Amino acid sequence: MILLNPGPVNLSQRVRNALLGDDLCHREPEFSQLQSGIRQDLLNAYGLDNKTWAAILLTGSGTSAMEAMISSLVPDNGKLLVIENGVYGERLSRIADIHGLKHERMAHTWGEEIRYAELENILTEQKSISHLAVVHHETTTGRLNDIQQIAGICARHEVKVLVDAVSSFGAEEIDFDAWQLAAVAATANKCLHAVPGTSFVVTRRDQLNLSGTRPRTLYLNLASYCNNQDQGGTPFTQSVQCYYALSEALKEFAEQGGWQQRRARYRALAAQVRYGFAALGITPLMTEQASSCVLNAYHLPEGMDYQTLHDKLKEQGFVIYAGQGGLSKTLFRISTMGEINADDMQRLLDAMQQITR
Ligand SMILES: *Cc1c(COP(=O)(O)O)cnc(C)c1O
Which ligand 1 atom is nearest residue 66's CA? Predict the structure, then answer.
């Protein structure tokens, strides 16, 4: 089956085989080595120095990394501004709400471009805002938010930037140092092509010590994970087999040329689908410029509901993805992450032609 949903993704044979590694206790040196190697490889993915930055590994899906980042890095005397232009931005607000953080929302309609001038005004007027949370690639619509621009505005107001890069880490540009990011949350099973079960936060080490703020969670406390992991340990049992897969996936990622090559590969597949669909009269929601390289949203073909399209494509070996919420009746989404290639996309186009004829 070819998975065109935005994670979990099709695995390479090499990553799948890694899952069959030896049984391993998480209190043994072999585990420490495996974990330290992954942490270093995650920093290497974006050329980060491990004195300034730490990659902190969690066992959970991408949302666990979002929740760990928000709940661990905003102090009681701070205030968070959350930018929303889709499901995942709204999820960041819910996390802030559940943990009782002082926060405000800057709401947009789903898919809308972020209103940068208004953001600048908000930060000028509200001096109490200390942190900003934003989604990089808003998977709801495929829009790639401009983190460089947002981070530039935040830097002028000394606001720290927390990014949900769950569906962009490994395939889009993230200039951690130049953009002065505070932390980024991501996962193993999207652009890094490993399995679901491990997520992570890459944070500036100096963000971890919130003096005067009591931990808000036991299980998702980043400072405690980081202390343990720096010493080769882990506070709780980690998903060992997911570590095996992630370790192998990161080796493959580096050998294939890192995020730059992955972006080039996704872009080529996405363009093949976009132009192929255009020839069948199926139109995208957004321009190529506004979209990520990872996922594009399309209007459903004339006269066909999502379920029918989904089921017919599944019969031919392809899993597509519905729009979320109110978009489920009008859109479908195609992600080009994972171990898939141009031949697969050609077969998708052939199947689509047959179905829509
Ligand atoms: C997939 C995704 C998540 C996390 O979803 P999980 O189901 O918890 O893995 C978070 N943010 C974005 C932008 C995503 O695409």
Answer: 10
